[in-house]
Structures are given as structure tokens and as C-alpha cells.
Amino acid sequence: MAKGNIEIDRDANFINRELSWLDFNFRVLSEAKSTKNLLFERMKFLSITASNLDEFFMIRVASLKDMVNAECEKSDIAGLTPTQQLKLITEKTHVLVDAQYGIYNRIIRSQLKAEKLRIVKIHEKLTEEQKEFVDRYFEEIVYPVLTPMAVDSSRPFPLIRNKSLNIGALLESSDDLKKKADNQKNKAKEEQDGESSKKGKVKKKNDDKDKDELEFATVQVPSGLPRFVEIPSSGDDVKTVILLEEIIERHLDKLFLNHKVVCAHPYRVMRNADLTIDEEDAADLLKEIQKQLKKRQWGEAIRLDVEDDMDRRLLKVLKKELNIHDDDVYKIHGPIDLTFLMKLYGTEGFEHLKNTPYEPQPHPDIDPEVSIFDSIKKADILLHHPYQSFDPVVDFVRQAAKDKDVLAIKQTLYRVSGNSPIIASLAEAAENGKQVTVLVELKARFDEENNINWAKMLEKAGCHVIYGLRGLKTHSKITLVVRKEKNSVKRYVHLGTGNYNDSTAKIYTDMGLLTCDTKIGEDATAVFNMLSGYSEPEVWNKLAIAPLWLRDKFASLIKREITFAKAGKKAFIKAKMNSLCDKKIIMLLYEASQAGVKIDLVVRGICCLRAGVPGLSENIHVRSIVGTFLEHSRIFYFHNNGKEEVYMGSADWMPRNLDKRVEIMFPVEKAELKKEVIHILDIQLADNIQAQVMDAQGNYKKVDRRGKKPVDAQSYFCKEAEKKIKAKKQEDIKSGRTFEPMTAADVEKKK
Description:
Strand content: 15-25%
């Protein structure tokens, strides 16, 4: 250890993973607050924070509660026990939720009203026309769907579904009302008889009795109906909407006839949704996951959202029946579950309050009127989504399915879209007699059911479907096409940083490589042989695979930079990823910093490393970019004493990616493409609009750009992709070619 450097392996040198994730959600929330974003974009960011928080509780918080229940007190990377983590998470989440609703009430709702989109509440003064509309909507649309549930000796407290929005109520029956009226008459008579002392005792006794006789009832707000309903407005240029739960509350008495509704309030329960799958004992993984999915709706209640003015008697019932502690109750000042704002974003007529949708550009090196295999043979193709279209990836599989010379297609699928053209092409390929092998990852969280359905459909089409290696998730993104050409067989490969999902490819920033490199083709074959059989090659040509080889590869690359730095040579690491929380990697980075290696990191979400700490990490800089698109690509650059090496892949620097998943990292070797990837990294590191930089305390702050040219990386790449296509068009005109760049969809229409 160099003189003056502090000890690396100390708890204080690391940030807790869960608290770091909450910090990320605060960064997303800051975009909802920022006046530089258009109003509907701010509304979308607020919705994203709500959706993020839901998943965080269902998985991460639920896991910590399981550990506490199992009396596990194992410390995390920052030295915190599960109990300590839960305490800190609860404190920070209450601050986050308060901030969410502060933005909703003070900014979003009021500014929407100023823009003539009103979100009204049922107790606000509605016009007669509006009341009539709401009443008719309830009778015709809502009422037939509702199932009111009362609780008494013959009807136990119902199972409240995970994340469902409900309305809880306390009721008083007509018999109880009659008894109360009789009691009041008796008390009045006693007062007339002068029995004042007795009156006090009777009053207390009757009050207690009244409380005991209140009945609990609940009704689920139907998830199959729109969360908000547009109602008539006072002016032609005004839109007025009301939330579905408000409509139901207005008519609650119609669901519980012969009862008086004493109070009614919406609430929502969050449950443990982390599946526990014993793969060792599971005879059929698909059936085991299907069985576990049914349990997800009824896991342990871990959080309760209620209206902030909920009647304390009603809250007491919910806490008791759901076994919820006070710390896990979130009193909401506004509509419960802000994810409805994402649907509200789609309201027509407010385009001036939204970003102009970006249209992904065709790739200048791919002519959709020529076989994609011919384009790949000319040179490796680097793809940058969503700035460049995902169509070449879709078309790679589509053409392979139809090409008479293609013998086999092999692909890994982690998350795909609901109406996936890639799935359709794989099925078509099997029907055309090609050998199709598809690894469908059944354990992709919250996509399990979707992936089970796809797996069954592909099997019916004749594909060979596998579910990966036991005990591991297959998170790698790889497609192999084996094609007969002349007297030989050629392998074409697509490798990517993101999923084969044509929908998310429009909003996630990812990168991909199309190549027919012989060595990579051999490695791709070895990958699929490993996944479908038992073969594990001793060496790989160019790919690095987790969980057996990738960690060592990263370690050797970092250590090589340390060696150069100690020799007084220039040493540099640049990397971009979603999360950084692997302790061994972080300790190597600290060691590299202490040796003098300059390290620039773009980490979108969780970062357990502390940057800029004197004597520990002063050579490490960490930034997070939150923008219109979700930063998702993984890129790794190592200076290597001037012989620069660039890699991309599917893995973050996290224990689960390096030790518990099948991941692939691949090199970018062609000089022109390598230069392009380094350029992409450098632009992100220069971002001073969307980027926030970590300080030595682990806090994030906007970049100080005084005197600097503004750089918004995402906007830059959008414009750059457009310029490339314009340049390509000009080049074609000069060469006498009139080819107009088209997407694969354009070609299909033309056909």
C-alpha cells in the first residue's frame, strides 16, 4: 500500500446498495422537479419513481424482511445488518414519498390545471352535468364489475391482492342505527330524570359499544377499467378527469344497502413478490415457476399505503389484519399509486407539453434491400440504440428464418415484447425446417409468465427450447445464425448489451455488434453447447463468459492498468454500466486509484463505491445520467499502455452478474468501431446537462458548467445519428446512386 493511502477494506469505504438505489430514485425525482423539462415529461418521471419504488419494495425490501424474520444478521458491504438497513430505508423512503407528493400537489396538478387539464376530486364542486355523467358511468360501467366484501363471523378478512388499489370502509347496519336511536332516547329520558352521574357511565358504555359494532368492508378498484375517466368540462378547450376510486367512493352506499358508511378511504398493500424457487428439487422448472407465480399475489404484506386522513379506527383494522407495523404505513397526501400518470401522459391534445418523439435512424452501413448477411460480410457493424433503429437485429432473425441457405438459428431470450417479431421469426424458421434452439430465461423477474407463454408457443412451432443452467439466470444477449455458403459453413453472430425487445429498444440506450468473425463464431457455438449440454471449453477465443471466467477477466484488465501506473506509465479506465456493487471489483478500483490509474465511471443506478475520497479514490470520478432514455449499455475501456482495448457486454459489476448469471463480454476490435465506442464514452463523460456527479460523501450534484459548452449526451447522439444518414444520402447522390435509406419495415411495405 502506497504511503499516505488509507486502508481499502473498511466498511466506511462502501455505500449500502439499497440506500444507493434510493439515491438513484431521488435523481429521477429531480427530473420531475426540474423546470428544464416539459410538464408532461416531468409527470412521466414522477410516475417512473413510483413504479421503481414498488419493485424495490416487492423485491429488495421484502428480501431484507425475510432475512430479519430468519434472524439473519449478516452485514452488507457497508457493515449494516438487515435490521439496520430496514431502519435507514424506511426513514429515507418516507422522505422520498413526501417529496413525490409535494411535487404532485404543488407542481404537477396545479400546472396541469393552468394548462387546462383538471384532475378533480369528488368532494369538489362538480356541475350538475358532471354529477349526472359520473352517476351514469358508475351505474353502466363500474357497478357491474365491483365485488364488495364485508367482514363478519361468517366472512373472514379477504385476501387483498398485491399492489391492488382498494377502498376500505367502516359500516353501521340499520339495526345498529335503530339501537343507537333508542339509546339516545333513553339517555335523553335519563337526563330529564336528573340521573346525571349515571348518564356519564351510560354514554361511555354506549360509545364503546358503537365502536365495537362498526363493520369492516372493502372493495377492489377494478384494474381492468381506466384509472381515470374524462368527464364533461365547463369549456371546450378544457379537459377534466376524475380518478376511478373517487367515482366508487361517491356511490359506496349503493354497494352496502341497509348500512350507513361511517368512513371510506382508499388503500394499497405491497407484498413480498420475490419468488423462492428450489431448482435442485424441481422436477419441472416451468411447472415450479408457474406454481410460485400464483403465490406472488399473496406474499407477506410489507407496506401499506393509505390516505393521510384515514379514520384511525379503519387504519387500526387494516394494520391488525395485514400485520403491518407503524413504520411500514405510508400516509399519502394525494392519489395512491402515481403510476397512473404514465397513462395520463398519453392524453391527446397536449403535445406542446411533451418532447417530440425521436425516430430511430436507419444504420448507414446497412442497405435493407440487400441481404443483411452480405452487409455483415463487408465489415462488422456497430449498432447504437435507440439512436439507430433496432430493425437490423429484427431483420437479422427474420431473414435467417426465410433464407434457404440458413441451417440453424440459436438465440437467448431474457425479456421480449408482447407481440415480438423475433419470436414470430423463430417460429417461422422452425416451420421452415431449420434447426432452432432458443434459451428462454423463465426466471426473468416479472417476465416469468410472459416467458412461459413464449416458451410453450416456440415448442409447439418445433423449436428446441431450453431453460438454461440450473441455479443460474441466463442474462447474456447472443444470436447465432449458421449459414451454408459455397462449400463451407459460415457463422453470423449478434452480441448485445440489451434485451431482444423491439419495444424497449426505443427507450433503452444499448449497443450491439453484428459480425461473422470466425473466432467469435466458434465461441458462440461453444456458448450454446454449454447452455444446452454439459460442455465447458477450457479456453475461449475472444468472448469472456460469467460465471466462470468473466470476473477473472475484469480483474486481470484492472491489474494490468495498475502495473502500468506503478511503472510510471499512463493508465486509464473508463466504464459505463447500470450498477456497481461488487466488493472485489470496487477494492481493485480503489487499489488502482491509489496506484495512480485515472478512472472515469458512468453508473446509472446503484454505486457502492465512494468517489473522490483523498487517499482512497481521488482518481475515481463517478457520474450518473438520467434522461429521456434509460441508460442501459455496458461498455469497458482499458488504455493498455496505448494499445487500447474496448469491450461491451450484458453484465454490470455486481455479484449476481459475475457469479450467478450466464453473461457475455465481447471485444470491439475493428479500429473504426473501437474509435466510435470510445467517442460514445467520451461524450457521456462530457455531459453537463443530464449528468449528476458523486462527491466524496456519496451525494450527487449537477455538474458545474459555468464557462463550458453545454453537452447533453442523449440529444447529441440523436443529432449525430441523423447527420450520419444525411451524409450517407449526400454520398450516394455524389456517386450517382439514388438509394434512400429505409428501415426494414419500409422494405416490407414496399414488397
